[in-house]
Design a protein that fits this description.
Helix content is 46%, strand content 9%. By secondary structure, it is mostly helical. The chain is elongated, with a radius of gyration of 23 Å.
């Protein structure tokens, strides 16, 4: 069976970390001329290291192709990763078109803008993390504790720790004893 023609403009969609629907990114890629069959949607946000669909797109891209994304923050959350990513594409002769920010790395101006906006994207991410941490610290100071409630009571956790320390039971046996799933 012959291979289908290779796309020259694949698009990458990475969901927002807040879980928003990626349809607006798909619509933007379609308006930018990306064929629906060449739009790849990852399930993890740009902050995650492993994104199988992006890795697939990178394998498919060849010299002369252009990767299209809606915004820089959809690719990565760190300047180092963005710069490395951009350099890797450039070394392979692959362009990057960031639709909403008007960046096209096939031109010198686009490469310069890519670098500047990479720095700003990381600054924005760091500000969000700092504000989140400040809010969590403020809540803890008021006696509120975030996170999941413990599955075991303090007594059960103590018994589990004693069984583990004494090497009387395996971790799986201890989890089974308390009706918990062992990771």
């Amino acid at each position: 069976m012959p291979l289908p023609p290779r796309p020259t403009r694949p698009g990458q969609v990475t969901p927002d970390p807040t879980g928003q629907n990626p349809d607006h990114q798909i619509d933007a890629l379609l308006r930018a001329g990306v064929d629906r069959d060449h739009i790849h949607v990852d399930k993890a946000s740009g902050a995650k290291a492993s994104r199988p669909k992006l890795e697939l797109v990178l394998q498919v891209l060849r010299e002369g192709d252009t990767l299209k994304v809606t915004r820089l923050d959809r690719l990565s959350r760190s300047v180092l990763h963005l710069v490395t990513f951009g350099a890797g594409l450039r070394e392979r002769g692959i362009g990057l078109h960031v639709i909403e920010q008007g960046i096209d790395t096939s031109a010198m101006e686009g490469r310069a803008m890519f670098g500047m906006l990479s720095v700003l994207a990381e600054l924005q991410r760091e500000l969000i993390v700092a504000n989140t941490n400040d809010g969590l610290a403020s809540a803890r100071a008021r006696g509120r504790v975030g996170g999941r409630r413990p599955k075991l009571t303090e007594d059960q956790a103590g018994i589990a720790q004693q069984l583990y320390d004494a090497r009387e039971k395996t971790v799986q046996q201890i989890a089974d004893l308390f009706g918990e799933v062992c990771p």
